[in-house]
Amino acid sequence: EVQLVESGGGLVQPGGSLRLSCAASGFTFSSYSMNWVRQAPGKGLEWVSYISSSSSTIYYADSVKGRFTISRDNAKNSLYLQMNSLRDEDTAVYYCARDRQFKVTTVTSYYYYGMDVWGQGTTVTVSS
Amino acid sequence: DIQMTQSPSSLSASVGDRVTITCRASQSISSYLNWYQQKPGKAPKLLIYAASSLQSGVPSRFSGSGSGTDFTLTISSLQPEDFATYYCQQSYIYPYTFGGGTKVEIK
Q1: How far off is chain A from B24, nearest CA to CA, in Å?
Q2: B94 in reach of chain A (CB within 8 A)
Q3: pLDDT tens across A30-66, in order?
Q4: How far is B90 from B70, CA to CA, in rounded Å?
């Protein structure tokens, strides 16, 4: 079964740090790019960060740039999010999600991307 | 960043109704548009990718259309399990951005 399982969430004070992990199973983790997406209580979805399969390409949302670091260990089938200088507004459920490439062929072929496998989420609460 | 605007933000409908949700991008994103369904306390689920391609295992009552800046998600005959919140998301360029969501409630 294709599965992603997040862990590492918890309660942390403003300015503190936390490291989230995402364990992948049931697929060849090293072949897929990965994302972190978060959802504040009662709010919508916010993309946080992306890492390519080889870690050669990394992107961050402006809201976390300079504070969060995404990484992966393909040998351990694991994705990570190191979160430093945490703020109240970082309180959210954090999901890891697989970035899947879809080939769509009409007259020509195009490649599209979607997040097709998601973990159950881990809750991060930043509060004093 | 590309802004994604969904409408309506919520709607009430009955089982069997045809439901349409609209998503507009602040610039052209070709067909790089995905739709997700999220139920309370659960992770989002990919329904539609590339604006109109149905993800494996998703019922055929779900369909997507559009390209450029204007997109639509249609549920042809609403079922009890379809009451949820729906999000559009552009995958044209990073940062990926989501619409604000449309909550589909029971009338």
Answers
A1: 16
A2: yes
A3: 999 999 999 999 999 999 999 999 999 999 999 999 9
A4: 12
